[in-house]
Write the structure tokens for this entry.
Amino acid sequence: MKRDDIIRAFTTDPDYRKICNQIGGLYADDLYQELALVMLELPGDKLERINETCIKCFYWKLAKHQFCSRNSAFHKKYRRDAEVIREHANDIVLVGQSTLPDIDLVDKVNRAIKDVYWYDSGILSLYAEKGTLREVADCTGIPIKSIHDTVNNARKIIKKKIKKYE
């Protein structure tokens, strides 16, 4: 069979949709479309060699890989966003409820920051202002690893001090 015949058989044979339904479940249509793109991108000679052996076996393995692998194009397009949303669903709901911060906790944090060594509190306030470790490192000329260690140590000390204040 030539490439066009193989592609035509692939698009009309219901077994390929069944494979996607078995593996993909709710994502079956998206998986089928993604696999169609992969199959269309294969060179003609490779597609013919695969067809000579077992193209449905190849398709099954490809579908399984696309659906299960975290590095596949399908996972990056369709599944990763859904996983992130499911993982942080409670946080997303809390943001929508617009809860006000605990004033007592804010006071404790401010008091703990004042009690921390001046260098650590200065780096921590720069980090809060700039937003990234890289920007703090660029602004101060201090290596990013040192900034990272200082921020982490200050954060740990502040957590301990807040617990002590309770």
Q: What stands out?
A: The radius of gyration is 27 Å. The first helix runs from residue 3 to 12. The mean pLDDT is 82. The chain has eleven helices and no strands.
